[in-house]
Amino acid sequence: xxxxxxxxxxxxxxxxxxxxxxxxxxxxxxxxxxxxxxxxxxxxxxxxxxxxxxxxxxxxxxxxxxxxxxxxxxxxxxxxxxxxxxxxxxxxxxxxxxxxxxxxxxxxxxxxxxxxxxxxxxxxxxxxxxxxxxxxxxxxxxxxxxxxxxxxxxxxxxxxxxxxxxxxxxxxxxxxxxxxxxxxxxxxxxxxxxxxxxxxxxxxxxxxxxxxxxxxxxxxxxxxxxxxxxxxxxxxxxxxxxxxxxxxxxxxxxxxxxxxxxxxxxxxxxxxxxxxxxxxxxxxxxxxxxxxxxxxxxxxxxxxxxxxxxxxxxxxxxxxxxxxxxxxxxxxxxxxxxxxxxxxxxxxxxxxxxxxxxxxxxxxxxxxxxxxxxxxxxxxxxxxxxxxxxxxxxxxxxxxxxxxxxxxxxxxxxxxxxxxxxxxxxxxxxxxxxxxxxxxxxxxxxxxxxxxxxxxxxxxxx
Length: 462
Fold this sequence. Notes:
With 462 residues, the protein is α/β, with parallel strands linked by helices. Helices cover 31% and strands 23% of the residues.
């Protein structure tokens, strides 16, 4: 091999979900592939996101299940909770998944390069002093949690640290109104922590349908989460200066001061593109650090591509997987795959769960004009005896001109499991008449989506 001949056909920076999928697909199509990763394999989703979060969410559901069991005739002392056991069992599962990712890569013939990778040019990457040449470079470095720039912000934690706490706090302030904030507020609350959520906006989950946030807030409050909207944290004082008895003194923008054991900042994530040598290699970045790519996920440097959270389009694991497969297929396959950002289902594992697919009511009115709205709120059958106060919201958004269902939205138990199936229907272009013609499974909450017959009255302003 000459000095100018590339060692690999594809070099992937980042072994998260998208990077690993792209690497495997390319290798299985005959490409010489390497992946560089300085941390555990699997990226954010496996190590600091979807998987550990869902495990914690499962744990946080058990107190409600135990309380509800009394209405079904079960009695006796509730089991005690041990934080260290949950945390350590979670770590064992994550380590198992790290090994699965490693075996998948090795099995596909992908070389794993341990260390931090930086671009040295359009076809060169340097990993801890080693210079590697590749025909194509794929940046799949994901995102990173950030803290707001306020006095004392260093005393707070992010979701990254929340997965590895030495001890469970007695009280916690969660700052933010997005999916990470509502999930962790629900998790801490379910595990017996006095949880307060503060959000500067007037509703939670502002990018979801406008009815989701208020309904979720009402349900979370009913479960014991103290939610304060229209408020911001002005400063966080350490125990040494606050006089808060070893706790953190949090000053709000209205001057109120409250002490908490921990403050979790869930106010956003940024593309993880710092110090990668991207701009030096000719790659253009957005003001927030996102890699600018075209419809083919190619940067303005033809040999450098990017996918996943670092391009800041849709921060969802299945989206990164789809993007990774697209790039691998385009470069080394038949180029038959496509990536669509329409009808992407998503779930929020708060208590209760939230799930949605398709357009919100606001988006549908903007794009289609006249729409019909079907909505149902009810107490599910389990709650009639459990009596823990849980209610369900279901909503359909329908195009009045074509009868096509444009959006499906739900707040309630197992919302993600239910809406996944309806995502198939929306992808197939299902109409409300076809929903109506579908028999429901009785008795389930899910059957409500195919039994809502009457649209809600529309105000003249709508």
